[in-house]
């Protein structure tokens, strides 16, 4: 049974049905509770991208409840075939680390099959990589 919840006290909207289905699959296959902390946006927060998939209604920010984001990111990578399927991965998964230029550490998932974006990325794992996006695994 999947367990996906929205951050308490928030008014988050996620309009992308493929993303919601993906979060169910993540929760199911990894046995974790997924907490959504951001979804559709109509403005750019401090440190955010002006071309963000959030603005297009195609992205979520998440945590796994009770688990560090680094471990969650590792689990997503290790289980990528079960979660994202064979072949091209039509999603962009970013671990924004402790030194992120965004508003706090989290996992970002964008529904974006663009080969320049898809795959696994990190940003802000250390002070030197703040604001620098590094692709650590191709789609
Ligand atoms: Zn995001």
Overview of the structural elements:
The protein is α/β, with parallel strands linked by helices and 139 residues long. β1, α1 and β2 form a beta-alpha-beta unit. The longest helix has 14 residues, at 17-30. Strands 1-2-3-5-4-6-7 form a 7-stranded mixed β-sheet. The protein is 21% helix and 25% strand. The chain has a single domain (3-137), classed as Muramoyl-pentapeptide Carboxypeptidase, domain 2, CATH 3.30.1380. The site of zinc ion (ZN) has 5 residues, from β3.
The coarse silhouette is globular
Residue-averaged pLDDT: 94
Low-pLDDT runs of 5+ residues are none
Ligands bound to this protein structure: zinc ion
The top-level CATH class is: Alpha Beta
- Counting DSSP H or I runs of 4 or more residues, the number of helices is 3
The CATH topology turns out to be Muramoyl-pentapeptide Carboxypeptidase, domain 2
Q: How much β-strand is present in the residues?
A: 25-35%
Fold blueprint:
Blueprint: E1 3-6, H1 17-30, E2 33-38, E3 59-64, H2 69-78, H3 80-84, E4 92-96, E5 106-110, E6 119-123, E7 134-137
Parallel strand pairs: 1-2, 4-6
Antiparallel strand pairs: 2-3, 3-5, 4-5, 6-7
The structure holds zinc ion.
What is the gist of this entry?
It contains 3 helices and 7 strands. It is of the alpha/beta class. Strands 1-2-3-5-4-6-7 form a 7-stranded mixed sheet.
């Amino acid at each position: 049974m999947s367990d996906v919840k929205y951050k308490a006290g928030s008014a988050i909207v996620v309009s992308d049905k493929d993303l919601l289905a993906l979060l169910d699959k993540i929760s199911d296959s990894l046995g974790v509770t997924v907490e959504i902390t951001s979804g559709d946006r109509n403005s750019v927060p401090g440190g955010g991208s002006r071309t963000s998939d959030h603005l297009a209604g195609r992205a979520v920010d998440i945590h796994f409840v009770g688990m560090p984001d680094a471990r969650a990111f590792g689990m997503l990578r290790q289980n990528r075939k079960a979660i994202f399927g064979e072949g091209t991965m039509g999603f962009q998964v970013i671990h924004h680390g402790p030194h992120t230029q965004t508003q706090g550490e989290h996992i970002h998932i964008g529904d974006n099959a663009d080969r320049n974006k898809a795959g696994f990325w990190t940003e802000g794992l250390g002070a030197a990589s703040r604001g620098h996006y590094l692709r650590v695994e191709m789609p």
